[in-house]
Amino acid sequence: ARIAVLPGDGIGPEVTAAAVSVLRHVAAHGDHDFEFSEHAIGGCAIDAHGDPLPAETLIVCKQADAVLLGAVGGPQWSDPKAKLRPEQGLLRLRAELGVFANLRPVRVHARLAELSPLKTERLSGVDLMFVRELTGGAYFGAKTRTADTATDETRYTTAEIERVLRRAFQLARTRGRRVTSVDKANVLETSRLWRETAQRVAHEFPDVALEHQLVDSMAMLLLTRPAAYDVIVTENLFGDILTDEAAALAGSLGLLPSASLGEGTRGLYEPIHGSAPDIAGRGVANPLGAILSAALLLRHSLGLAGEAAAVEQAVDRVIDAGVFTRDLGGSAGTREATAAVLAALS
Amino acid sequence: ARIAVLPGDGIGPEVTAAAVSVLRHVAAHGDHDFEFSEHAIGGCAIDAHGDPLPAETLIVCKQADAVLLGAVGGPQWSDPKAKLRPEQGLLRLRAELGVFANLRPVRVHARLAELSPLKTERLSGVDLMFVRELTGGAYFGAKTRTADTATDETRYTTAEIERVLRRAFQLARTRGRRVTSVDKANVLETSRLWRETAQRVAHEFPDVALEHQLVDSMAMLLLTRPAAYDVIVTENLFGDILTDEAAALAGSLGLLPSASLGEGTRGLYEPIHGSAPDIAGRGVANPLGAILSAALLLRHSLGLAGEAAAVEQAVDRVIDAGVFTRDLGGSAGTREATAAVLAALS
Ligand SMILES: CC(C)[C@H](C(=O)O)[C@@H](O)C(=O)O
Ligand SMILES: CC(C)[C@H](C(=O)O)[C@@H](O)C(=O)O
């Protein structure tokens, strides 16, 4: 299998290196053949190639079986008036790969409950799977700008809504068989199309329960009743906001993975944390989000569900054992945490 | 002073009646002359007049010094395909009154900390003032719909952004002198205009500190560091989501007021809770959100800051005394809670 690795900016190189070492371990022990190649994206690609998504990177990603990405961005590239921005590379890559469904699981490890801002008793049983539409909406709509006016268009077609909803319903079948579809149907036309489409798609999945929530209510319910939800599916911008809110429940962003999938098995895998420029290059970043993203890569792109589960269990054991990086209140470095995962895997 | 009262749907009539009784008490004891008149809005206005904002209601509101609203909406009017929806009445009223700045204070009463989903230690010192842009953005932009495509346009002009930001900076001067402006400038054109405009307006207020946050980060920071913020200003849709998220911190929506202000002193005041059809007409709704909205009315539209503070202190004393409606874990009815506020005022 060909795996394109895009380390990106900030702590991206450190955490992708950790994830690659775990994948190499899986390959060696299971007699799989993984080929890795590294390519530029984001701010460092702007600096080196004048393009946040160089043509070479895109070609390799399209030919790969899976793409593992670190993070993009940093203060030196974040002038809002700049023509080239690191995020453009990531957004173009998502669109070019056609990965319309962004899966973000959120679980709260019992040993980390005290790090969560939520009261411990609210956390028990929290096991969420967000499915965020990733290649449409305001992110990719027409934009205009004059001296004193700006516009962003949010556009959705029935086909775009159907395919991401089907993915959510399919996932629900492997879990609690409940889908919560989030929109703002009392105000937005795109949300009314979203809701109607969800109602129609639900008929294809009579064994899965569908409920609708307004995005403002959902922002509240994630705090008041986080254990009450299973699969939560929503459009791109709402998903961006709600998944970060839900991520806060886990106690640290450093732990959370994501998988972005399209029609085939090729996927884009990235931890949900950012490039964390303040700690970049110091060997203290939490590698677990990237390692758990590699587990999702094994499961969704390479069909290695057993190996994926083994990596996830190894991470659980490392947390149980209290090997914590600084974001979790410990003093382990990136290398130490990674070594602990490798040891737990053996 | 002329006060237009729009009870609306669900528990709206119960909670506005409570707020009016507090205002009558203030008038009687302070020798002020308040004239109240009641008008239809929302679902009940659709039923009675075929219009969620009847012409008569709008005319009276435009002539009033202040408008006190209960809540609109309910399941019988919430078919997404319906032509007439209760929310349209509220949205049109906001636009027609030109109330572009929606103020939503969020404090967490110490006695109610255990109701909050957040760990108690994170709550100390939380004292937020949201300023949500209320008459622009995706709520009021062009919308299109065909059989298989829908669009919503988000549009902002510099003038719209400036006026709401100035209001936020002015409020910050009466509080902690810090403004956090929330946008999604790494993706949206309207957010880049927002951020540039915020930077420019900040020069008019050298005594107030400005910081920018991305909306996804803010959704997380409200949970991880809620006490770190003072005034938070943002566009309409982001404000809708973030204020509901922040409201969850207070333990119950039933307590939270809002004020919507334009260029003059006329304002629209409403509790942030909805119409709560499940408990409507049963005399158990929490009247404190509506009563605190009446306090904001006294302060912002009638120039009665002392009276406003007296009402707020009376509500604090009622909470201190443990007179709780069901949403706060008590058994007091709407009437009992209102009587307790009136007694505390005397
Ligand atoms: C970096 C940014 C463009 C991106 C997004 O908004 O999608 C990030 O916040 C995310 O959620 O992956
Ligand atoms: C009822 C609805 C249209 C309204 C809004 O979205 O503005 C409500 O959620 C609010 O926040 O006041």
TrEMBL record, chains A, B:
<keyword id="KW-0963">Cytoplasm</keyword>
<feature type="binding site">
    <location>
        <position position="244"/>
    </location>
    <ligand>
        <name>Mg(2+)</name>
    </ligand>
</feature>
<feature type="site" description="Important for catalysis">
    <location>
        <position position="139"/>
    </location>
</feature>
<comment type="pathway">
    <text>Amino-acid biosynthesis; L-leucine biosynthesis; L-leucine from 3-methyl-2-oxobutanoate: step 3/4.</text>
</comment>
<dbReference type="GO" id="GO:0000287">
    <property type="term" value="F:magnesium ion binding"/>
</dbReference>
<feature type="binding site">
    <location>
        <position position="104"/>
    </location>
    <ligand>
        <name>substrate</name>
    </ligand>
</feature>
<comment type="function">
    <text>Catalyzes the oxidation of 3-carboxy-2-hydroxy-4-methylpentanoate (3-isopropylmalate) to 3-carboxy-4-methyl-2-oxopentanoate. The product decarboxylates to 4-methyl-2 oxopentanoate.</text>
</comment>
<keyword id="KW-0460">Magnesium</keyword>
<feature type="binding site">
    <location>
        <position position="216"/>
    </location>
    <ligand>
        <name>Mg(2+)</name>
    </ligand>
</feature>
<feature type="domain" description="Isopropylmalate dehydrogenase-like">
    <location>
        <begin position="2"/>
        <end position="341"/>
    </location>
</feature>
<protein>
    <recommendedName>
        <fullName>3-isopropylmalate dehydrogenase</fullName>
        <ecNumber>1.1.1.85</ecNumber>
    </recommendedName>
</protein>
<dbReference type="GO" id="GO:0005829">
    <property type="term" value="C:cytosol"/>
</dbReference>
<keyword id="KW-0520">NAD</keyword>
<dbReference type="InterPro" id="IPR019818">
    <property type="entry name" value="IsoCit/isopropylmalate_DH_CS"/>
</dbReference>
<dbReference type="GO" id="GO:0051287">
    <property type="term" value="F:NAD binding"/>
</dbReference>
<dbReference type="Pfam" id="PF00180">
    <property type="entry name" value="Iso_dh"/>
</dbReference>
<keyword id="KW-0479">Metal-binding</keyword>
<dbReference type="GO" id="GO:0003862">
    <property type="term" value="F:3-isopropylmalate dehydrogenase activity"/>
</dbReference>
<feature type="binding site">
    <location>
        <position position="240"/>
    </location>
    <ligand>
        <name>Mg(2+)</name>
    </ligand>
</feature>
<dbReference type="GO" id="GO:0009098">
    <property type="term" value="P:L-leucine biosynthetic process"/>
</dbReference>
<feature type="binding site">
    <location>
        <position position="216"/>
    </location>
    <ligand>
        <name>substrate</name>
    </ligand>
</feature>
<feature type="binding site">
    <location>
        <position position="94"/>
    </location>
    <ligand>
        <name>substrate</name>
    </ligand>
</feature>
<comment type="subunit">
    <text>Homodimer.</text>
</comment>
<keyword id="KW-0028">Amino-acid biosynthesis</keyword>
<dbReference type="InterPro" id="IPR024084">
    <property type="entry name" value="IsoPropMal-DH-like_dom"/>
</dbReference>
<feature type="binding site">
    <location>
        <begin position="74"/>
        <end position="87"/>
    </location>
    <ligand>
        <name>NAD(+)</name>
    </ligand>
</feature>
<keyword id="KW-0560">Oxidoreductase</keyword>
<feature type="site" description="Important for catalysis">
    <location>
        <position position="184"/>
    </location>
</feature>
<feature type="binding site">
    <location>
        <begin position="274"/>
        <end position="286"/>
    </location>
    <ligand>
        <name>NAD(+)</name>
    </ligand>
</feature>
<keyword id="KW-0464">Manganese</keyword>
<dbReference type="InterPro" id="IPR004429">
    <property type="entry name" value="Isopropylmalate_DH"/>
</dbReference>
<comment type="similarity">
    <text>Belongs to the isocitrate and isopropylmalate dehydrogenases family. LeuB type 1 subfamily.</text>
</comment>
<keyword id="KW-0432">Leucine biosynthesis</keyword>
<keyword id="KW-0100">Branched-chain amino acid biosynthesis</keyword>
<feature type="binding site">
    <location>
        <position position="132"/>
    </location>
    <ligand>
        <name>substrate</name>
    </ligand>
</feature>
